[in-house]
């Protein structure tokens, strides 16, 4: 079965058709820059363009970088504050005007986690697995025996008086021009705090910077193993598509 996955990020909105049996992207992805400011109506117009580009009539999974419950956004750390309280699923549904397109909106890190647990680095892993995406912010997804605890928001855990993501995201590494060693110390501090709170069996590190995992993963000192994600930039698209296909076909 195929499902359309769309990843809404701070700089780009990307879509691709995903084979939900294999997790592979079957058609070339399509990207449109995120409107600035990223107002809900403007983002919804881009979403419609992506759905039209693929001439799509089927389930659509969409990631969003915020707390999402039943399609509604409840936070807006790195997006326009007007998203708070917006029913994103309903807004996108209305704009795409596609009655046969059930729309599922989920947190971006939760989507990435679903992709990793189903087809990537966390495949077949039981116990407590925590996926962290290091990018503009820090996203998190917690799985217990393969089941997701949604909207965990560990990037906002307070460390030295600041949100973890304002100390240890990849954005901070770049903005402050931190060496890999200095940045790894900050990531390590965040991971060890998370480890103390949740005693995970495995950490999976995603986000674009996970491509360079040899530079910082060996410098970490957690008890649980820390491994890189396998899906790099496509994790959100794949995970959102999977979640939408499960919603549309709950018995498969
Ligand atoms: C947001 C999360 C999101 C993460 C990664 C954080 O600032 O609060 O919802 O998953 O950034 O984009």
Q: Could you explain how this protein is built, in words?
A:
Helix 1 (40-53) crosses helix 2 and helix 3 (108-119) crosses helix 8 (235-248). The termini are close together. The protein has helices at 40-53, 88-96, 108-119, 165-168, 170-175, 180-198, 213-216, 235-248, and strands at residues 2-8, 12-19, 24-25, 30-33, 60-64, 68-69, 72-73, 103-107, 128-134, 138-144, 147-149, 158-159, 162-163, 202-206, 226-228. With 252 residues, it is α/β, with parallel strands linked by helices. The chain has 8 helices and 15 strands. Strand 12 (158-159) and strand 13 (162-163) form a beta hairpin. Helix content is 33%, strand content 25%. The strands form 4 sheets. Strands 1, 2, 3, 4, 5 and 8 form a 6-stranded mixed beta sheet that branches. The longest helix has 19 residues, at 180-198. It has 2 domains: 2-110 and 234-248, 2-Layer Sandwich (Nucleotidyltransferase, domain 5), CATH 3.30.420; 124-228, Nucleotidyltransferase, domain 5, CATH 3.30.420.40.
């Amino acid at each position: 079965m195929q499902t359309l996955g769309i990843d809404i990020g701070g700089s780009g909105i990307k879509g691709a058709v995903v084979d939900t049996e294999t997790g592979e992207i079957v058609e070339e992805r399509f990207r449109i820059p995120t409107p600035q400011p990223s107002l809900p109506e403007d983002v919804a117009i881009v979403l419609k363009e992506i759905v039209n580009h693929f001439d799509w009539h089927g389930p659509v999974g969409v990631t969003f970088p915020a707390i999402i419950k039943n399609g509604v956004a409840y936070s807006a750390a790195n997006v326009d504050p007007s998203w708070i309280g917006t029913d994103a699923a309903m807004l996108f549904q209305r704009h795409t005007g596609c009655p046969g397109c059930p729309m599922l909106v989920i947190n971006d890190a939760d989507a990435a986690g679903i992709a990793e647990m189903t087809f990537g680095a966390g495949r077949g892993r039981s116990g407590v697995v925590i996926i962290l995406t290091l990018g503009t912010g820090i996203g998190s997804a917690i799985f217990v025996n393969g089941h997701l605890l949604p909207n965990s928001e560990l990037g906002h855990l307070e460390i030295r008086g600041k949100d973890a993501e304002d100390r240890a995201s990849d954005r901070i590494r770049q903005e402050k021009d931190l060496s890999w060693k200095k940045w790894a110390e900050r990531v390590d501090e965040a991971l060890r705090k998370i480890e103390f709170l949740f005693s995970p069996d495995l950490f999976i590190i995603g986000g674009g910077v996970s491509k360079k995992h040899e530079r910082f993963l060996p410098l970490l000192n957690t008890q649980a193993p820390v491994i890189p994600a396998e899906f790099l930039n496509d994790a959100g698209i794949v995970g959102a598509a999977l979640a939408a296909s499960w919603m549309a076909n709950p018995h498969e």
